[in-house]
Amino acid sequence: MTATECPYTLDPVGSDLHGESAKLREQGPTQVRLPGGVVVWSLNSHAAIQQVLTDRRVTKSARNHWAEFRDGKIPPDWELISWIAMDNMVTSFGSDHRRLRRLVASAFTTRRTESMRPRIGELVTELIDGLATTPPGAVVDLRETFAYPLPARLVADMIGMSEEARAATSKVIDMMVDTTVTPEQAAGVLQGWRGAMTDLIEEKRRNPAADITSDLLASRDEDGSRLTELELMDTVFAILGAGSETTINFFDNAISALLSHPDQLAAVQAGEVTWADVIDETLRVESPLAHLPLRYAVEDIEVEGVTIRQGEALLVNYSAVGRDPALNGETACEFDVRRENKEHLSFGHGPHYCLGAGIARAVATEGLSRLFGRFPQMRLATDEPLQPLPTFIMNGHRKLPVILEPGPN
């Protein structure tokens, strides 16, 4: 890739996310081509991304501010349509965003985080006990058997979704983050998850319970307004997808990083550094979310000397932030739990900061500490590089093969 290749076609399978990000960062804000030939601005530096995340002239509402979407140039079967067609606090703007965030925030209280701790412990115990039955020396895909089910089942519990419904919906989420899907598949994804959310919401209307979906059904803003049916449906799905998919990849990245740096794992196990250090360093160097579609310029803005015109779309690359040498120097790409500055934006920044960050940290701490406490001699089962997921949206691996080598009970 060279500076003359503009717009550069983003690798749809994310085969080298970090290498591609570094090359794009060198060019400053630059245009890239997404699936379907859609051209957007790509942002890959800490300074540029932090600027747009807090700039009120930047929005996530395609229906209000993306010229191509409003003009009908983005087809309903565009490969990334699910990311921009939602109607929830993630894709709202101005007063609508503030209203929706207040309504959703009421379901993510400190009290709820604390109330989830026993369930987190139960799930971790169940999954680790299952892993402990693995025959000695056998290879286990820890992504499939631990990293995936722990957050997926926890978030399903939080929104009140049955295990059967969760398993079916997980296939839709997997397709949503797969940036190699066909237009036909993309259209099916949007219909599929909205159908699943409709069923869940109707069930909670009939049988409300102590879960987020029931809370959102009952919540009212200070002016008495409530979530519309579409806002409710898309909000519940956003919680399910964001809460599970990002945490799955976090566990995948944290475990693989520690197993690839046994000296640092030893420091954690010896209490020289904390699991909080592991969490933040993993989020810094291997953000589970890579490129998040999309944001839009409400008016002309200047980013690092480049003018982005009103109505143009921006693609923020979270996986590039912590690796920016301007922020973390020459060692920015190295995993180092002893690093003093672990600044990252993996939970977002500004008005879209993740409401579930507290719960995510709680499950990360419990999951990692218990897993490595039970299997202190665990090691990777391959010397080959782990294969990335076929996506430029998420940052994780197809499989995480390990040999557990359980310690004494």
From TrEMBL:
Coiled coil: none annotated. Keywords: Heme, Iron, Metal-binding, Monooxygenase, Oxidoreductase. InterPro entries: Cyt_P450, Cyt_P450_B, Cyt_P450_CS, Cyt_P450_sf. CDD domains: CYP107-like. GO terms for molecular function: heme binding; iron ion binding; monooxygenase activity; oxidoreductase activity, acting on paired donors, with incorporation or reduction of molecular oxygen. PROSITE patterns: CYTOCHROME_P450. It comes from the Bacteria. Belongs to the cytochrome P450 family. This is Cytochrome P450. It comes from Myceligenerans xiligouense. The lineage of its organism: Bacteria, Bacillati, Actinomycetota, Actinomycetes, Micrococcales.
